[in-house]
Every structure is written in C-alpha cells, then in structure tokens.
Amino acid sequence: MSFVTTPSEQSPLLSTQVAVLTVSVLERLGGSKSDLFSALPFDEDKLLQEDGHISYAQMYELIRTAISISDTPWLGLEVGRSETVSTWGVLGYAIMSCANELAAAAVGAQYYQAAPSLMRFTSGIEGDRMYISMRQIHSNPEILPFCVEENVCGICAVASGYMSEPMKPLEVWLTYPEPEYAHKYAEYFDCKVLYDQPENVLWTRAPTNAPLSTSDPVSAQLWLKLVEQVIERH
After folding, report:
1. Which residues pair with 173 in a beta bridge?
2. Hey, which residues does 54 pair with through a beta bridge?
C-alpha cells in the first residue's frame, strides 16, 4: 500500500516565483502593492529572499487579497499567461533542455514538485491527445479557480516557448460551476470548457518526437541534478 503525503499548509515549502509574479500582475492591473502587503502578515522582502519559500497558507492569503484588491476575479488567467520558463525555476530549465517533446513531458510529469506548483498532477496520453489532471494540494474551494487558471494558462504559455508549435488547450474540464466571468475562459482558453466535472483536466495535443529548439543534452543533465536536489530538500 502506498500513501501520498500532503505537505503542511503552514510549512514554508513553496518557492516564491508564482507569488512574485502575482504581485507584478496585480500592479500591472492597477492594484496597489502597498495595499496588498499591508493586508498580509508578511512583507515583500520575504518573497525576494535568495532561495526563499513561503507556506501554502501564505500563498493562499496572497491570492485572496490580490484578487480582492485587483477587482479581477480571473487573476489566475492573467498570472498564468504571464509565466515564463524562469517562473518554474530549475524545473523549467530542465524541461526546455530536453531532446524532444516526449522527453520534456516526461520530465515535467515526474518532477513537477520542483516547481512552485499549487496543484498535484497526473498525466497520460489517449490517442492523439494528452491529459493533465490537476488536484489541489490543500482543499480550498475559494481559490480553486485561481489555481486551475494559473496552471492551464501557465502550462500552455511556458510549453509554447520550447515546443515545435504553440501548445493550446483542446478542451478543459473544471470541477466547479461556471463562474460569472466565464466569457474570459472563451477568450483565454479558446476551446470547449465543461463545468461540474469529476476532475480538473487540461487536454492538449499529444507530445511528439519533434526536437526542442532549446535542447541541450549537457545542460539537461545538470538541470536534472538540481531538480532532484530541490525535491530532496523540500
């Protein structure tokens, strides 16, 4: 019998790249950074420390406050589409150094915990489509839409930077009801969206043997070692 360990919501296990990006997007949307941190139990310096980490509880509070201040309930969409390889830290560089799309997908699936992820992932290939199933690490219905939106848009934005052709959603399943801003999903996802589903799933085209333009075998080995060290530490 095997067990999946859920990290403590209070433990500082989450690297701060997505938190920093969320603050940046908030400011771009006209929100006040000073208002944000005056409402939080920590300051910006905590996010900018070298090898800094925050707890899931702190990240969740940042998300809730940022959504409120920005008056943008679809903030997760904006954060996700603003992500780059560097947002994923060492995992991003390990993935982009892989030889081809299949290898990149395998590394992402195996080592996703090395990135500042708000979700757990399982993935697989069915015919010419790949599914990426997303499950919250800590059950928190209030910020579930942000977590899913950030991941769907983030995965597509980052993967499009190294794949042979842009990665686009083919279909998205959501466990929650249709939100008031569902028209934004049509704009950002540009695909069929199903609500009240048993799981949150991003469907995309299946990866192929197409080489990555950013492939670097030597760097790939070095980045993978760093990825394994990150997972071992946290």
Report:
1. 194, 201
2. 14
Q: How many C-beta atoms surround the C-beta of residue 225 within 10 A?
A: 12
**Crossing angle between the packed helical segments 17-28 and 56-70, to the nearest 10 degrees:** 10
Q: Which residues pair with 126 in a beta bridge?
A: 129
Q: Is residue 104 exposed (0-12), middle (13-18) or buried (19+ Cβ within 10 Å)?
A: buried
42: which 2 tokens?
């920590």
Beta-strand ranges (E) seen in 107-170 are 119-126, 129-136
| pTM for this model (two decimals) | 0.92
pLDDT, tens digit (0-9, with 9 covering 90-100), for 149-173: 999 999 999 999 898 888 999 999 9
Q: 121 by DSSP, 3-state: which? A: strand
Distance of CA 104 to the CA centre of its chain: 16
